Structures are given as C-alpha cells and as structure tokens.
Amino acid sequence: MPASQFRAARRAEQHPTFSSSITTPPSSSTFSLSFNLPDSRPSSPGSSIFSSESSDDTMSTSSSKPELLHASTEDIAERDYFSENPAPPALDKHTQLATDFIEFHADAGRRVALVTSGGTTVPLERQTVRFIDNFSAGTRGATSAEYFLESGYAVIFLHRQFSLLPYSRHYSHATDCFLDFLHEGPNGSVVANEEYRVKMLMVLRKYNSAKSKNLLLTLPFTTINDYLFVLRAIAQLMRPLGPNALLYLAAAVSDFFVPPERMVEHKIQSTNAADRQDTTEGALKKADKEASKETEDDEETFDNFDSSPAVPRSKRLIVDLDPVPKFLKNLVDGWAPEGMIVSFKLETDPEILVHKAQYSLTRYQHHLVIGNLLSTRKWEVVFVAPGQADQWIRVPRHRRKKTISGIENMVGVAASGGEVGEKPLDPKDLLEGEPELEIESLIIPAVETLHTAHIKKAKTRS
Ligand code: PMT
Which CATH topology does 91-255+328-461 take? Predict the structure, then answer.
C-alpha cells in the first residue's frame, strides 16, 4: 500500500480521543488485599456498565466519555477503561515510531509481527515505590522475535522495560553475564573468548542486519496501563496491513490492578509516624494511647481472611484490586480485525491447560492459542486452532539437554517437534537448565504456516 494511502487509512481508523479523569486519592493508607473477581463481564465500581442507563443500546454517558452508539459490553469496557485511566506520557512518541515503521514495511509489502513480551507491573501508588509483578522474563517474546526476523518478518517488539531483548538476550541473562564472554586483548582492546567467538559473531551480525534494514522496532512498557494503551494504539495502526499483520501476544499481562480513583499519591506508610505533626511529649503520649486503642479494636473486629491474625489489621497492607478488562475481543473485532491473532495461555495444572486454551479460542474467536505450562514451557507447547486437532510441539528427545558451550549452530535443524504419539512431558523427567534446541525455532515456522494460510484465505475472500 502506498504511503499516502496508508496515512489516509490510518487517519480514517483513528478512534476518538479519550480524556482522562483522575479523582483525588483517598486519604486513608489502609488497603484491603482482595480480588474483585469478574463474573462474565468486567466490573469497576462506578462503571456505567452497571448503571441503569447502560441497558440501552444507545449510551447516555457523562461528559468525559465519548458517546457510543449500539455499544457492546466490550465497547463500553474499552470506552470506560481508556477514559478513566491516564494515557502514558510516551504514548505519542511510541505511536509516531510505530507509524513510521509500519508505513515503511507496508510499502514493501512485508509481513509485520507485533510481539508482546514480559510481565506488566501493577503500581500501588502514583509515585510508585511498590508494585505487583509477575515471573515473566521475556524469554518467549525475545526468542520468538529473532525467529520471526529470520523468517522475513519485520518485528515490533513491545516489551516490558528491562526484560530480555532479541539478540542481546544471549548475553544479558543472569546466568550468562556478558563480561564472562570477554577478555582484554592487546593495546587495551576487548576480545571475545575463543570458545564463544563464533556464536557471538553470528548474533552480532544478525542484530546489525536487523537494525540496518530497519526490521526491528523495540518499544518498552512498564505498567499494565502503559501496555494496554500502547497495545491498542499499535494494533489499530496495523489495520492497513490487512492480513499481513500478525499479533503474537506472549506477554504475561496482569489480571488485576488498582484503578486510579483508589490509588494513593504517595508511598504507602508502614507506620503512622508521618501523621504526627505535634511532637510534644503530651501529644506523643496521646497518639500512642490512641494507636494502642485502635489496635485493640482492630484485633476485636478483624475477621477477614484469618480469624486469629498474627498482626493487627492496622499494621497489615491489604490491597484491593479490580479486574483488568479483557480486551482480546476488542482486539479481534475492532483494533486489528484482518490480522492474524495469536494469544498464549499459561497454566500450572496440566489437567486444565487444553480446556482453558479451547475456551479462550471460543470466547475470543481468534486464530490460534498457544498453551504452555509454567514448568515445561521451554520444552513443549500446544497449538489450539479452529478446525484442526490440537497439536503438541515438543523439543525432540535428543535435543532436550543443553550443551555446555551453548553453541547455536544446531538450532532449528529439527524439522518437527517431538516424537509421534508422545505423551505430555512430566516436569520431573526434564533435566535442570534449558533445552539445547530453542522451542521457538519450532513454534515460529508453525505459526508462519498458519499465517500464510490466513493471508491466502483473506485474498480468496476479497
Ligand atoms: O517470558 P517467559 O518467562 O519466557 O514466559 C513466557 C510466558 C509463559 C509468559 C508466555 O509463553 C505466555 O504464556 N504468556 C501468556 C500468559 C497468560 O496466560 O496470559 P493471560 O491468560 O493473562 O492472557 C491470555 C492472552 O491474552 C495472552 O496472550 C496475553 O498476552 C493476552 N492479554 C491478556 C490480557 C490483556 N488485558 N491483554 C492481553 O493482551
């Protein structure tokens, strides 16, 4: 698509600008740790979804929210979320970078993959000292991005800041400190240790090639809110790519967050020392007396999670979280309706993995769910796609041990994953460490095949 047409299509597809409204945070520093679990739809105290006026197709809304005609529950959740939460400061900058990148590759008729990677943080304060996080290191996303580049895709790598990055990941992992790969050479030069030199050179060449051909755009996010705003913006920008767009959502996205109206401005205090403005002896004695009375009361009345709490309520940090709206439906139907959408499903219980992946596919009606278990995710995944049998992809038995040198020249040699008829892996049977063959070298070609079929189907339709 020519650049001018691309720009026109983009302008036409831009959504209304939402204004953000932040209410004054509550003055209390007492939090309650509980999850406000969603039922079938997202909830938020005060959300218009549940107000009487929301039952009509035509929404009558407060002035800060754009009016929605014939709104679905997902449209309303989207409108509410993006009008009630502040846009991240870097949004415009990231949007501009993504616009230029997509335009460049749309002109070349190239496939573009948006790869999301890493965890998202959930801040507990606006000036954030404390936050909730998750385990994801970004290995899946960073490794997949490299194999997409190898397959000829341009890649937008939307990643959690400081998580692993394509190419540099080989040397930034905690167990692979880059300094251990180097030594000092003649005249103060820095030289790669001989046993690592070939691999380092290969990685460096691939990295430089991706950079010089403008094939890799890396955009960072930190919080769940940053992630959602940038994901929506980029997915919408990708619409003019049509079926050539691939959205590969490997990020481990928080399911719960503190909404702005309940978020305090300053660091949550662990004592009430900061409240004591009057430091005269009399005032301090009075405050101590009140505090101990408060503690007694708390211990008497506190019966929430634990009938005999080890510490009184006044000393606990109890955080009250709302569910993050699920925006996959919005992504599939509205943000990037022609692109191929691949989501992931992570579980820890093997008994429910496939069922949960199938449920997700049915619910969101997209193109592929890749299921993985926390303990075996580097050795096997399952592809759940409409109209085809579930397909396990496994690192073959003889490639499950990592070589000591970690030399990569054998990676990707295996044509298919796993031995036929093999049962799901038992984590107990796996050796410690990582497999010699990166499972993403098997996942990405399989995704590419499905994407090719997706593009073909779209061309036949049009
Ligand atoms: O980074 P690693 O350590 O290598 O780990 C990789 C991984 C295990 C994190 C990855 O392979 C994986 O499984 N990621 C998805 C985790 C998950 O189960 O996400 P979910 O059930 O919360 O979400 C389902 C899908 O929707 C995911 O693709 C997620 O990226 C996407 N999502 C979810 C919620 C939301 N608000 N926006 C989203 O895009």
Answer: Rossmann fold (3.40.50)
Half-sphere exposure of 278 (CA within 13 A, CB side): 9
Tens digit of pLDDT for each residue in 233-248?
Answer: 999 999 999 999 999 9
Pocket test for ligand 1, best of 346, 347, 369, 438 (most atoms within 8 A of CB): 346
In the chain, where does the domain assigned CATH 3.40.50.10300 lie? 91-255+328-461
Please say if the pLDDT value at position 154 is more than 50.
yes
pLDDT tens-digit readout, 133-151? 999 999 999 999 999 999 9
Average pLDDT for 386-412: 68
Query: Does ligand 1 come within 6 angstroms of the Cβ of 221?
Result: no
Query: Which DSSP symbol is given to 325?
Result: P
Token duo for residue 352: 């429910």
Strand order in the sheet with 112-117: 216-221, 154-160, 112-117, 245-249, 340-347, 368-373, 380-384, 391-394
Q: What's the token pair of residue 354?
A: 């496939």
For a ligand 1 pocket test, name from 82, 136, 160, 367 the mutation site with the most ligand atoms within 8 angstroms of its C-beta. Answer: 136
pLDDT in the model for residue 334:
94
Least confident of 81-95, 301-315, 432-446: 301-315
Is the CB of residue 342 below 6 angstroms from any atom belonging to ligand 1?
A: no
